[in-house]
Amino acid sequence: MIDLVAILPFYIQALFPGLDLRVLRALRLLRILKLNHYNSALDDLFGAILEEKKSFLTTLYIFSVAFVLSSSLIYYAEHKVQPEAFRSIPDAMYWSIITLTTVGYGDVSPITVFGKSIAAITAIFGVVVVALLTGIVANAFNAQMDRRKVIFEDQVRNALLDGVLDSDEEASLDDLRKKFGMSKLQADALINHVKKTRENPEL
What we know:
0% strand, 8 helices, mainly alpha
């Protein structure tokens, strides 16, 4: 479907040569969305976000509340002294999102004491929220990797019940390794670990 939409401008232009389809050509960028078919790391990232959806959405909700609140406060603090920069609350939202995301262009800055206080609190809160989101995703990502390692080790143990890995079992484990996005080095390390624990259960 993505490929069909991406090549649609070509066929439209062939049928209607006079049309200016420069904007529609941007649809070719939709092919970027297919990267997740070729990059298991993206699948892992999206999977980690979905697993921590509740925590992720809660943090985004808090971020949204802070976004609206800081936009409103900075508007009331600055619009009288900087009417061109803070003409309305929607205009103040630009400053708020730049500050909360810790980008801080500096093109719009508060000059009142109250405005600077709001800016300081907003910036600190932005750092905290970004750290929370990063921690949530990182923990979910690590948990997902740990689960995959456990599954892979279980498959290795089952394959080693007879004490040997035959060619079919090796091929099956290699398919599982690729599915999980593990490197050959990681898989070999896990296989060796399972073999050692079979030989010496105290390890």
